[in-house]
Design a protein that fits this description.
single chain; 202 residues; binds coenzyme A
Length: 202
């Protein structure tokens, strides 16, 4: 959890415990389905970039898919979705999506959400985290690079003809540069990611 309370009583005599904390990151549940659908609509202008209601429901039921909600003063204003994958060689993770309501952007919510996901991945033992992003999504690319992600390869026509993606990777140990370079493993992994039908991270 990323919440905090100020510990003071307000003019109505309410203690901080009675109020929603200003910032809170919490796991989502099926009760949040409607909220998550609305957030997708608000955050992604293009319908093809959004998770469908059915897909969100499936993610909420998947215990390997952390779904986090960011609340500001009790209102859901962002979410982050990931996947933890168990391979014979170890555990890896993917960020599917980090999305913040346009009214709440530029205030640190996206960074909080991404960091909370990375913490979940680390706790699950993931040695690397992957994601895909549109080549022109400068805010998201800046966020991910600032968190230690490095570009692995380009993904031509990943989203649609002419709409290219970039594949990024971040090792758990940021000092482990050998894991960042575009190794053959990374390129094969990126190709296999492209082949799956699930939506990438935006
Ligand atoms: C990408 C997104 C999640 C960032 O959320 P946010 O809450 O605005 O980001 P933050 O305020 O936490 O900023 C974190 C970092 O993101 C980058 N960033 C955010 N907005 C940016 C902008 N307009 N231009 C360039 N970089 C930007 C910066 O590196 C920033 O770090 P800084 O504040 O130290 O400069 C948000 O723009 C969004 O929801 N976009 C639509 C959905 C999407 O495309 N998601 C990503 C792919 S799934």
């Amino acid at each position: 959890m990323d919440g905090h309370a100020n510990g003071k009583a307000d003019s109505n005599g309410l203690r901080a415990d009675d109020e929603p904390p200003e910032h809170l990151i919490r796991p989502a549940s099926l009760r949040d389905l409607d909220v998550l659908v609305r957030l997708e609509e608000a955050c992604f202008p293009h319908a093809e970039d959004r998770f469908s209601r059915r897909r969100i429901r499936g993610l909420l039921l998947n215990r390997r898919a952390p779904v986090l909600i960011y609340e500001h003063n009790g209102r859901a204003m962002g979410n982050a979705v990931g996947l933890i994958r168990q391979h014979t060689s170890g555990v890896s993770a993917r960020i599917y999506s980090v999305a913040v309501h346009p009214q709440a952007r530029g205030l640190g919510a996206g960074r909080r959400l991404a960091e909370a996901l990375l913490t979940r991945f680390s706790e699950a033992g993931a040695r690397r985290t992957y994601l895909e992003v549109r080549v022109d999504n400068i805010p998201a690319i800046s966020l991910y690079v600032s968190l230690g992600f490095r570009q692995v390869c380009t993904l031509p026509d990943y989203y649609a003809p002419g709409q290219h993606g970039l594949s990024f990777c971040r090792p758990l140990d940021l000092g482990d540069a050998a894991l960042i370079g575009p190794t053959l493993f990374d390129q094969l992994e990126a190709k296999s990611l492209r082949a799956v039908t699930e939506r990438g991270s935006g």
